[in-house]
Write a structure and sequence with these properties.
Number of strands: 17
Strand content: 25-35%
Order of helices and strands: EEEHEHEHEHEEEEEEEHEHEHEHEH
Shape: globular
CATH architecture of the largest domain: 3-Layer(aba) Sandwich
Helix content: 25-40%
CATH class of the largest domain: Alpha Beta
Strand order of the largest sheet: 7-11-6-1-4-5-12
Amino acid sequence: MKNTQGEVWVFAEQEEGKLSDVPFELLGKARELAGKLGVKVGAVLMGSGVESLAKPLFEAGADIVHIVDDPALKVYRNKAYRHAMVELVKEVNPQIAIFGATHMGRDLAPSVASALRCGLTADCTDLQIGDYEDKKTKETFTNVLHQIRPAFGGNIIATIVNARNWPQMATVREGVMKPLPREEGRKGEIVKHSAHLDGVEIPVEVVEIVRKASTVNLKGSRIIVCGGAGVGSKDNFKLLHDLANVLGGAVGGSRAAVDLGYCEHERQIGQTGVTVRPALMISCGVSGAVQHLAGMQDSAKIIAINTDKDAPIFKVAHYGIVGDLNVVVPKLIKAIKEK
């Protein structure tokens, strides 16, 4: 049942008592959507002993934090989280629920949508509020969620609406939304809810959690040197590392470069990788496919190096160099070292 006064929700993903960066990104967009709808922003916080995490959520934009605290939610298991989330939706009746397109969000959101028999749009790059007319029935819907994402391999941008079966649900790619400036001391309302897990059999037991820390931090890098298939080989990628080293930056790669084995998957930038907004992006041998551009086109300054003067990357680049990166990059390194 539709509730046009329902809240705009953000799933506040946390692990081992630590919030991920994603809820803070999503809360900024949720505030924008809620402002247009004239409703409150709710953050859904699940886990065990997590009430202290409400404070940063309020400071990031949440008006209400819905806490579902239960020992069975200490570690993420789909059935437990799904059941608790479905019951919470039925109890509070939000009109929009947004999840991060993380490993957890991509697992949880579709199972919740399936249980509620509502729609879900995955990997959105933008969310807007607007109207929609059903061309078959001529019925008009006002103030519905426009869920925007690349489709057909990134060749078009699709706008998807769920006008009838609410809540309107979407997952949003990491790094796409900008968090609001933190408002220190901002307060809100904490509402505690039952997980409703009595009698629910959870078939998975977590015996041990093993983590391997990533050595790459593309999202936090102010300077990124990114290579594509045009780099030509894994050995040539060493040039990009040399350039990044003299600039104090990080090295990334397009999906084509990753698929060819030129660089590791954790360095992938684009629709199926990470989204970055560095102060400086130097693209070397990157053609500029839509999927890749979706992950880097908001960089403050983009320098593109490519032998093909008609490469799509030049359409978004602030500065373009038509040439062989094996010639251009060593000259850049030399010039930087010589100041």
